[in-house]
Each structure stands twice: as C-alpha cells, then as structure tokens.
Amino acid sequence: MSSWEFSWEFSWTDVCPSGLRPWVKDYNDLAPCFQEICLQLPILVLFAVFSSYYYGSHFRLVFRSETQRKAIRVRVAASIGLGLIPVMKIFYILRMHGKIYPIDVLLSCVQFVAWSVHVGFLVSSLKRGSLSQRGPLGIIVLWTSLLALASIWVHTNIHSEYWVWYVADLVVFGCYGVTLIAPGNAHFIRVQRTVDEERQALLTHTYTRFFEDIDESVLGPIQDDANFFSRLLFYWVKPLISKGVAGKLRKSDDLFDLPECLNMNRVVEKLQKQLTASAS
C-alpha cells in the first residue's frame, strides 16, 4: 500500500470508522459509513431541496376536510420527531461516552435541517397546495427511500448499543406512513374580488388567470358522446379535419361552430360600443 493510499484510508477512518467500503464481509451487510455518506446524506439533501421548492410554490388556497387536516398535523408531529431524535442521540452519546465521529454529527445536522424544512412544507399544505394531502410525487418517492434506508439502518445496527434510537426513528417513520393512507377530500377556494377591485376600470392591464381545475362545470360539458374508443380512434376530431381539408380554417373563430352573433369579433365590437356609450 502506497503512502497516498494509506493517508486516504487513514483520513476516512478518522471521519467514519469503516471508511468508504460499501460492504462488510463479517456481517454480510452494507457498511455503516457507506450508508451514511453515499446513501442517506444525498437523499436527505434532495428531500430538503424538494420540500423547500414545493413550499415556495404553494399559492393555491385549498379547503381540506377534517380527515386531511388531522393527517397533516400528525405528519408534522412525526417530522418534528424525526428531526429531533438524531440530535437527542448525539447529546446522549456525548454524555455517555464523550466521543463521537464527525460523520454522525454531520448526518444528524442534515437530518435536523431536512425535516425542519419539511415541517414548513407540511404546515403550508394545511391551507395551500394540491388537493391530495399526500403531497407531490417527488417528495413521496424520496420519503419512501428514506424509509427503506431507515429499515436497512436498523438491520445494520440492531445489535449495537444505540439500537433503541434507531428503532424509535423507524417507528416514527411508520406513524408518518400511516397518515398517507387517509383519503379525505378537498377543493380549491375561489378568491373573491373585493369592492375596490370591482370599481376598477375594466380595460386595464391587470388580469386574473382562469384556473380550469377549480370548477369544471364553468366550462360546461365537453364531448358528452366521447368514450374510451374515441381516445384511440380520434373520430371526434373528424369534423374539424374535414373543415380543414375544405379550406375553411382561415382564422381562430373557424375552429368553433358558433352562430354569427357569438363570433369573437362581433362580441368585441358590441362590448366596445357599450363601453363607449357608458363612458360618454
């Protein structure tokens, strides 16, 4: 073994006792340091990044049922526990033994930060976000990965002195997972315009986008006669294709079979006349 290889191995064993070896032949299991450095830390960082991203992207107001609210509150409590258990374990080890490896301190800090960010995401989900209380798919996948890693970690350290802490961590993970089963229901809250907004001029540059998933009935029924086979054969679009072949699609209004009185240009013209008359 060269001096460079010896110093590399020595430095890593100072950080973590088993170094970067992925496998321990004596126990026929993944090496603890490999799990912490190469598996747990990257997943926790991604978990924190995804939680912070979706926390910042919550802008839709949602009214949730009591079942969903209780499930999210239990999840908040479980996330707080998952963030505090590693920190409490570090203080326990320092008090009982007075020595701890740097990788354990780093992992505990990352766990605390990641779950703290996730708590913020969950709290914002009580009133904002998507209709599903389970959260985005990316966060669910990362949480499932953390659950699998926690199970492997318990299997690796079941005979260690601190096995109680790891089992407690896995139990809290289970409490979190149970809340994902709760269905409940929710609906988006339509923001009401205030009196001051209603007094503003109609022809301004301000606008409110149309949220098509708030209430589907606003758009009316679409293709009532469409069925499963129409998605495969596309026969419902045949009239539009025939109109295009005949050369009758020359402007946007030609896409719709509307009477002349509902033509877009005619509607805009009537609206402009009414606004001009009211202004004068």
UniProtKB/TrEMBL annotation:
Signal peptide coordinates: none
Keywords assigned by UniProt, alphabetized: Membrane, Transmembrane, Transmembrane helix
Transmembrane segments: 34-55, 76-94, 100-123, 135-156, 162-183
Protein name, entry field: (northern house mosquito) hypothetical protein
UniProt lineage: Eukaryota, Metazoa, Ecdysozoa, Arthropoda, Hexapoda
